């Protein structure tokens, strides 16, 4: 039997066990569930200027603070709750990011109203199926793409906050709109077979 250390993985995930688990089970898996799409939008926007490791370690705190990522509840958060969230050490205590999350929940509902689901909207930017990149070990990961540029521009036009092209590209990687596992990573082939 192969031990976890003998499996080829993307090198960015090798820092701590939660990172490896996230890489092996979530990163790059196509997401069509709106609640999970919202969860990653919240986490990615919170990450701006920070490491993904920091956000992963606070994921449970975000889950508790933001109603298990139920965007309908978050959209109705009163202003008074913002002050409470600013005291919550389980999340990044940044007023602008917290306000952006509440704003984005409201905009998320508007997109759902227009397209039926947020998932249908976001997957439309990649033609409905994951972009399959072929990154080799040692090559830099892209920070943006024409698709993330277009999506970020459209989200901004719709009033979303803290979701520029770089953040959106990370969201696309996380939710499987793009497969950026290295070609020699064991997950690349597994995910390239998914539709």
TrEMBL record:
Q: Which domain of life is it from?
A: Bacteria
Q: What Pfam families is this protein classified in? A: Adenine_glyco
Membrane-crossing segments per the record: none
Q: What is this protein called?
A: DNA-3-methyladenine glycosylase I
Q: Which organism is it from?
A: Algoriphagus taiwanensis
């Amino acid at each position: 039997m192969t031990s976890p250390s003998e499996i080829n993985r993307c090198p960015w995930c090798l820092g701590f066990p939660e990172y490896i688990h996230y890489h092996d089970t979530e990163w790059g898996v196509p997401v069509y569930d709106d609640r999970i799409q919202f969860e990653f939008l919240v986490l990615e926007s919170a990450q701006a200027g920070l490491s993904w490791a920091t956000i992963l370690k606070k994921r449970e705190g975000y889950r508790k603070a933001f109603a298990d990522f139920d965007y309908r509840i978050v959209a109705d958060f009163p202003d008074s709750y913002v002050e409470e969230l600013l005291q919550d050490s389980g999340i990044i205590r940044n007023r602008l990011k917290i306000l952006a999350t509440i704003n984005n929940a409201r905009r998320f509902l508007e997109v759902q109203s227009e397209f039926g689901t947020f998932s249908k909207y976001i997957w439309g930017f990649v033609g409905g199926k994951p972009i399959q990149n072929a990154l080799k070990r040692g090559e830099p990961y892209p920070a943006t793409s024409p698709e993330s540029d277009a999506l970020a521009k459209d989200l901004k036009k719709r009033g979303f906050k803290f979701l520029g092209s770089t953040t959106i590209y990370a969201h696309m990687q996380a939710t499987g709109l793009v497969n950026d596992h290295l070609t020699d990573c064991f997950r690349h082939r597994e995910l390239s077979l998914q539709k």
